From TrEMBL:
This is Transmembrane protein. Residues 105-143 are annotated as: Disordered. Residues 125-143 have a biased composition (Low complexity). The chain crosses the membrane at residues 5-29, 41-65. It comes from the Eukaryota. The lineage of its organism: Eukaryota, Metazoa, Chordata, Craniata, Vertebrata. Keywords: Membrane, Transmembrane, Transmembrane helix. It comes from Oryzias melastigma.
Length: 143
């Protein structure tokens, strides 16, 4: 209930500030030259309070929106775990992660589905291997 009242206040504050500013501007336009000075001061204070209420209400609304946005983003984060397999090697259990396929620039290549326990090569080595394959294909097509 408290959050709903806060949301209502955040929405009504800019509107109330706008009304207060408009009312002050209207009273200022209706004022004659012979009116009292204190009435002019009250009208100018009313306009200033209306403008401040509008700015503060917009600030609170944006702050509340950012809170809701962050809350939604936090609820959409999913934990990601990488598969890791423990393999016995010479009586010692070694944790090994599953190796991804060789790197490709456009991801259009179908990855090799053969099972591999070795660690993937570094990116620079994978690029050199692909460049070497391209050069071999170009040499074969040139003949």
């Amino acid at each position: 209930m408290k959050k709903q009242l806060w949301s209502l206040a955040c929405m009504l504050l800019p509107f109330a500030g706008f009304l207060l500013t408009c009312l002050g501007a209207y009273l200022l336009s209706m004022q004659s030259v012979n009116d009292f000075l204190w009435r002019s001061i009250v009208i100018y204070v009313m306009i200033a309070i209306g403008l401040l209420a509008m700015l503060f209400g917009v600030f609170l609304s944006l702050l509340q929106f950012e809170k809701k946005k962050k809350k939604c983003q936090r609820s959409q984060e999913y934990p990601v775990s990488t598969p890791q397999v423990v393999v016995p090697t010479d009586g010692i259990y070694i944790p090994m992660s599953l190796a991804p396929p060789l790197y490709s620039q456009n991801n259009s290549e179908i990855p090799d589905s053969s099972w591999c326990w070795e660690q993937p090569p570094p990116y620079s080595q994978a690029v050199q291997m692909q460049q070497g394959q391209r050069q071999q294909e170009e040499a074969a097509s040139a003949h």
